[in-house]
Write a structure and sequence with these properties.
CATH superfamily of the largest domain: HAD superfamily/HAD-like
Shape: elongated
Distance between the termini: 6 Å
Subcellular location: Cell membrane; Membrane
CATH architecture of the largest domain: 3-Layer(aba) Sandwich
Helix content: 25-40%
Family: Belongs to the cation transport ATPase (P-type) (TC 3.A.3) family. Type IB subfamily.
Radius of gyration: 21 Å
Strand content: 15-25%
Protein name: Cd(2+)-exporting ATPase
Order of helices and strands: HEHEEHHEEEHEEHEHEHEHEHEH
Bound molecules: adenosine-5'-diphosphate, magnesium ion
Number of strands: 13
Length: 286
């Protein structure tokens, strides 16, 4: 191929905030059959906002929120940030945990003065044999369940917004004859709500970070080359394992390093644009 054409592709990308890491990236993109995406921070803004603190029994809502915030204060996950921000906004004093154990893509275990606190998803609390019969899932958002000394004490409802251009971008990708799949660690109901609003072809939910890679391998076996788009939070392995790894927006530094393509903006339209540029560039280079 003619390197000059790749320079023009790289130039066309940079005008749109798309950073191709060399001609090899442009060449690899032209062959992809599937775009697999992370949900949080890729299809959604990743701006989690606490909507409600829902205690069980006679526990106070603010106490539930304060315990969760103390537990989450050392985590850098966007869910954790939203809980800490909500507690601070209410003027609640946050305790500093004496021991913390974060389980990637699941939740956090911390020791506070009132005892052991667990904050995470349903499966995370279930793995600690917590009795969750008092938990009622009423909402299609992300919910963080909280246990104190191995007793379920309530949940916190957190919302995230779908990016404005998500549906248009998914439709543009599909228009390029490419299958769209979402790989997420979030629950099925929250994943289905996002799929319904964006028109994404397929969803795989409740995946742990290493399971995202297993799922990617299955997709590669069934359909061919896959571009994975993620922000690097809990998806670095799958980003590195994809035929084309794309890091989105204000992604983690490690993700930007491991990626073949970096989208400097968080707009989803960069995904179909990158594919179109790669296809045109390769036609010229032939
Ligand atoms: P996604 O695949 O949507 O980017 P992640 O893999 O980052 O999601 O997280 C998957 C799920 O794990 C979250 O939806 C949440 O239920 C749970 N989780 C991860 N980190 C935390 C945390 N710090 N506190 C509470 N729950 C968490
Ligand atoms: Mg993520």
């Amino acid at each position: 191929s003619v390197p000059l054409a790749f320079f023009s592709g790289i130039g066309a990308g940079s005008k749109r905030g798309i950073l191709f890491k060399g001609g090899a990236a442009l060449e690899a993109i032209k062959d992809i059959k599937v775009v697999a995406m992370d949900k949080t921070g890729t299809i959604t803004e990743g701006n989690f906002v606490v909507q409600n603190s829902v205690p069980t029994g006679n526990i106070e809502a603010d106490y539930l929120l304060a315990l969760a915030a103390g537990c989450e204060r050392t985590s850098t996950h966007p869910i954790a940030n939203s809980i800490v921000n909500a507690a601070c906004a209410k003027g609640l004093s946050l305790e500093r945990p004496t021991a913390v154990n974060e389980f990637s893509g699941r939740g956090v275990q911390a020791t506070l003065s009132d005892g052991e606190v667990l904050c995470g998803n349903f499966d995370f609390l279930e793995s600690f044999q917590i009795d969750l019969s008092d938990y009622k899932n009423e909402q299609y958002g992300t919910e963080v369940l909280v246990a104190l000394n191995r007793r379920f004490i309530g949940h916190i409802i957190i919302s995230d917004t779908i990016k404005e251009d998500a549906a248009a971008a998914i439709s543009a990708i599909k228009g390029l004859d490419i299958l769209t799949v979402m790989l997420t660690g979030d629950g099925k109901s929250s994943a289905e709500a996002v799929a319904a609003q964006t028109g994404i072809d397929d969803i795989r939910a409740k995946l742990l970070p290493h399971e995202k890679l297993t799922e990617l391998r299955k997709i590669q076996d069934s359909y061919g080359q896959v571009m994975f788009v993620g922000d690097g939070i809990n998806d670095a392995p799958v980003l590195a394992g994809a035929d084309v790894g794309a890091a989105m927006g204000s992604g983690a530094d490690a993700a930007i390093e491991a990626a073949d393509v970096v989208f400097m903006t968080s707009a989803m339209e960069a995904i179909p644009q990158s594919i179109s540029i790669a296809r045109i560039t390769n036609k010229i280079a032939v």
